[in-house]
Amino acid sequence: MQSEILSGYATAEYRLVIELPEALREELMRVKKYFAETYDCAVAAVGKPQISLLRFQQYEMIEKRIIHRLQLLVAAQDAFLVELDGFSSFPTHTICFQLTTREAAKALVKSIRPIQHLLKIDKERKPHFITEPYITLAASLLPWQYE
Fold first, then answer.
1. Strands of 50-59's sheet, edge to edge?
2. pLDDT score recorded for residue 6
3. What's the pLDDT score for residue 4?
4. Quick count: other Cβ atoms within 10 Å of Cβ 99?
5. Which of 41, 43, 129, 142 has its CA at a distance of 20 to 30 angstroms from the CA of residue 5?
6. C-alpha to C-alpha distance for 21 and 66, rounded to whole angstroms
7. pTM of the model
8. From the candidate CATH numbers 3.90.1140.10, 3.40.50.2000, 3.30.200.20, 3.30.530.20, the one assigned to the domain spanning 2-146
9. Which ranges in 81-142 belong to alpha helices (H)?
10. Residue 1: what pLDDT?
């Protein structure tokens, strides 16, 4: 019912990410570009390396409230070191940089769960919490690129 009442309002897709330090981001971009050139995968060179924590859809008019609540939650978190060790993959033909310091990112995701009511637009469109944090090297690979 509420979804029908608010159906005329603009919605947006949101992603909450951890932006990496510039030196690490530049090094990962070099690896992504090398992969893109070596395996003929232009899409690998696109997009900044970052750690995704959350994806959701919500009405734009609620954005300021969500940002305020997220700022309060994040301010209470301790800073943490991002360490990488090799690569991992997903069966969906995605190769990732392996995070060895996942627990801090997992704790951050867990701290956001109490405000998930703000992140849920309706029963069908629930927020997606990333419980296994990663940094994408390349996604949607063809079988010969993935293997």
1. 11-19, 50-59, 128-129
2. 61
3. 52
4. 20
5. 129
6. 25
7. 0.82
8. 3.90.1140.10
9. 102-112, 116-119
10. 39
Strand, helix or coil for residue 123: coil
* Domain assignments of the chain as residue spans, ordered by start: 2-146
Q: What is the mean pLDDT of each run of 10 residues along the chain (147 residues)?
A: 62 94 95 92 89 94 95 89 89 88 89 94 92 89 73
Looking at residue 147, its amino acid is E
Query: How many angstroms separate the CA atoms of 24 and 12, rounded?
Result: 30
> Rounded to the nearest 5 degrees, what angle is found at the Cα of 97, between the Cα atoms of 94 and 101?
130
Is residue 86 helix, strand or coil?
strand
Record the tokens describing residue 97, joined without a space.
Answer: 């940089």
- Is 12 strand, coil or helix? strand
Helix (H, G, I), strand (E, B) or coil at 106: helix
- Partner residues linked to 128 by β-bridges: 55
Angle at 16 between CA 55 and CA 68, to 5 degrees: 115
